[in-house]
Amino acid sequence: MEITKNSRNRIEMPLVGYGTYQLSTMQAETCVAEALKAGFRHIDSAEGYNNEEGTGKGIKASGLSRDEVFVTTKLFPGYEKWGSKEKNYKQSIATLKEQLKTLQLDYVDLYLIHAPFASLRLEQWNALIDLRKQGLAKHIGVSNYSQERLEEIMDADLPMPEANQVEFHPICAQTDLTNFMQNNSIEPVGYSSLAPLSTWRIEDGQGGEVLSEIKTECQNVTRDVAEKLKVSEAKVLLRWGLQRGYAVLTKSSKPSRIRENLELFDFFIPEDDMSRLNTLDLQRPMAWAANGVDPMEIAAQLK
Ligand SMILES: NC(=O)c1ccc[n+]([C@@H]2O[C@H](COP(=O)([O-])OP(=O)(O)OC[C@H]3O[C@@H](n4cnc5c(N)ncnc54)[C@H](OP(=O)(O)O)[C@@H]3O)[C@@H](O)[C@H]2O)c1
């Protein structure tokens, strides 16, 4: 597929999305408005981010019509270990309805189960199938689902997720899972593309220091490629994700970085540099590590 500013994947999702994790409600309002002003047309939210009210206000403030913006949000499935009760079918339906009120929207473009944290996950998936039938979600998918979890849905003879949002950067390159998703028409969406950078989640309490010791080699190669191409390291990592066939999500609380992170269409990473970046895979996710969790592993422990 050609990668341009306006490219969309098979579910009409613009290939670069603005993520809202770790923004306060007030920041979400100003940053989402800023992102839409900069040209983002894809916003990624979640029940668990506790800022959907701000995200909704930011979308409204942009003055864009509803069909110009692709909005994703997620169901928090519940996780008993964190004292959060698993949602059943009825509660999952009710949750999106509440989120839509908070977001001030009539529908979302994509609704995801945030992670396979619940033993009721097939019941939750059935709720998403019905939410799509009701038109409250145009598309439905999952996040942090391994091949095994996706096969569980297939084995239950249910419609398959249209997208799977997973951590994706050179240190966590998801090669086998990506092949499986491609073979089953599941759109890959990457999060935390910037996790290898020394500037990732460095404010107090954001948790970016976890696993920082494994990033050195990736940082060296990324810096080299960035210097050669005369672009920032952040842009190299985001563009790498696009060239690997992913839609990418990126968050910043700073207007200049918000704009920078969307400037991914006037350069190209040559094959030899892609190959160097492709050798850095340690299959190590980092985004949830500060919470002591590998989200793909949890369902295996539930059984
Ligand atoms: N489904 C899931 O389980 C899941 C998990 C994690 C994330 N997500 C989604 O994916 C989105 C992106 O992931 P993420 O939040 O980890 O964001 P990210 O874009 O990978 O990294 C954000 C971090 O990098 C910094 N940063 C942003 N742009 C930069 C630049 N150009 N140069 C240097 N540093 C830069 C930010 O700092 P400043 O804010 O200070 O600029 C922030 O600390 C999330 O917001 C969320 O929507 C989903």
Architecture overview:
- There is one protein chain.
- The protein is α/β, with parallel strands linked by helices and 303 residues long.
- It has one domain (16-297): NADP-dependent oxidoreductase domain (TIM Barrel).
- The chain is 38% helix and 13% strand.
- It has helices at 25-38, 52-62, 89-103, 121-133, 147-155, 175-183, 216-229, 233-243, 255-260, 271-278, 298-302; strands at 16-19, 42-44, 70-75, 108-113, 137-143, 163-167, 187-191, 247-250.
- It has an 8-stranded parallel beta barrel with strand order 1-2-3-4-5-6-7-8, surrounded by 5 helices.
- Strand 2, helix 2 and strand 3 (70-75) form a beta-alpha-beta unit.
- Helix 7 (216-229) packs across helix 8 (233-243).
- It is globular and about 55 Å long.
- The protein starts with 15 loop residues before the first strand and ends with a helix.
- The mean pLDDT is 97.
- Residues 19-21, 44, 114, 143-144, 165, 191-195, 197, 199-201, 232, 234, 249-254, 257, 260-261, 287 line the site of NADP nicotinamide-adenine-dinucleotide phosphate.
Helix share bin = 25-40%
What overall form do the CA principal axes indicate?
A: globular
Put simply, the count of helices is 11
**Poorly predicted runs:** none
How can the largest sheet be summarized?
8 strands, parallel, barrel
Q: Structurally, how many domains make up the residues? A: 1
Query: What's the total count of β strands?
Result: 8
Mean pLDDT level: 97
Biggest sheet strand line-up: 1-2-3-4-5-6-7-8
Give helix and strand order, one letter per element, not per position: EHEHEHEHEHEHEHHEHHH
* Distinct small-molecule ligands in the complex: NADP nicotinamide-adenine-dinucleotide phosphate
CATH architecture: Alpha-Beta Barrel
Portion of residues in beta strands equals 5-15%
